Amino acid sequence: MNRFAPIAILALSACTNPVREAPYTTEVVPIEKAGGFACAAESVQYAIGQKTSAELGSKLVAQSGSASLRWLPPHSMATMDYRADRLNVHYNDDMIITRVNCG
């Protein structure tokens, strides 16, 4: 039994993963460098309670600094991907804006 112990230990040590440092580093890129668009939903919160319209949508995009606008109707599905340059406008069945956020 004792003569198989060194072989068993050697075999078990071969099953472990070696610890290695990551060969790369990550860098946080500020939004200005990434594309120049940053959504500022705080600046367009006044739209909550207003009726949706194409004109209002254009105004919200311009004032928030976002690159795109996504209208989110009630009872609909939306992708969960986060985009820092997109303004989301949620509205209810009466076409009244209920929430404005980035993503």
From TrEMBL:
Domain of life: Bacteria
One Pfam family here: Inhibitor_I78
PROSITE patterns xref list: PROKAR_LIPOPROTEIN
PANTHER family: PEPTIDASE INHIBITOR I78 FAMILY PROTEIN
Protein name in UniProt: Peptidase inhibitor I78
Organism of this sequence: Sphingorhabdus profundilacus
